[in-house]
Design goal:
14-stranded mixed β-sheet
Length: about 270
């Protein structure tokens, strides 16, 4: 009997696989902070074929997300396995003359989400991520989507706080595409342990994230704060804010069934 599983562990029935095959469906509440970092530091993080967008002058977004996931097996009813939180940076770059985002850093608190991200090219590490949630029952703790509401978010790794954000909502954004309008690129990189092959990864690709049925809703903008201190063992501070722009609170959903390979560095 053939062993089954989209990822390891492979078993006769495939039930133990950390990740099931696509389609993958996601829904999230998000906080995104616009900021500007040192453009040379951004360029130093980009793989071959990408360049920092000169028009953006170091523009980036720090995202915090509270996710709910399902595949084709009613995973939405198993929240212990498939709810998770995530934080990542997207820097603005150019590929083949076209504006894109690139993800150099990302943190997640769920092993299945970690494995799905590696399959796509997201450089995920385990972390601890929190953000203010919205609730429907009126309360001082409800954080409604309304003018004046305040939201906070944080990301940590190995017990060290990497990022802290605050936003205060001011107005609803009529056209989300005026803010979020670039496709996201990643680097799929898997090394090899054999001593004579350690500098020759079998998988090294620039990839483009493909999202089906993307929906961005209830976008609110407002003032923002973002701190990214230097932490031992991490390089995130290299693209810490030189200045901070707007903050956004939104809902987002999409499905993943495919991936596009833009460039193969492994030959």
């Amino acid at each position: 009997m053939a062993l089954k599983g989209f990822t390891v562990p492979l078993t006769p029935q495939g039930k133990s696989a950390l990740v099931a095959p696509p389609p993958w469906h996601y829904s999230s509440d998000c906080i995104a902070i616009e900021y500007w970092a040192n453009q040379e530091a951004i360029q130093a993080l980009l793989p071959p074929g990408l360049s920092a967008d000169p028009q953006s002058k170091g523009r980036a977004f720090f995202w915090f997300l509270d996710w709910q996931f399902t595949g084709s097996n009613d995973e939405v009813t198993d929240p212990a396995r498939y709810q998770y939180r995530e934080a990542f940076v997207l820097v603005e770059a150019v590929f083949d003359g076209k504006p894109v985002n690139y993800c150099p850093f990302i943190f997640v608190d769920n092993d299945a989400a970690l494995a799905r991200g590696w399959a796509q090219g997201y450089p995920k590490k385990l972390g601890s991520i929190y953000q203010t949630r919205t609730f429907s029952a009126p309360s001082a703790a409800a954080a409604p989507l309304a003018r004046g509401s305040r939201f906070g978010a944080s990301a940590a790794c190995h017990g060290e706080r990497l990022a802290t954000a605050r936003i205060q909502l001011e107005e609803k954004v009529a056209n989300p595409a005026s803010v979020f309008n670039r496709p996201t690129t990643m680097r799929r990189y898997f090394p090899q342990l054999a001593a004579d092959r350690q500098n020759k990864p079998p998988v090294d690709e620039l990839t483009l994230s493909l999202t089906d049925d993307l929906a961005i809703v209830d976008v609110w903008g407002g003032t923002a704060e973002l701190q990214m201190p230097e932490v031992r063992g991490e390089d995130l501070h290299l693209i810490a804010p030189l200045r901070v722009g707007r903050g956004y609170r939104l809902g987002m959903a999409y499905s993943v069934t495919d991936l596009r390979i833009l460039k193969n560095y492994a030959g």
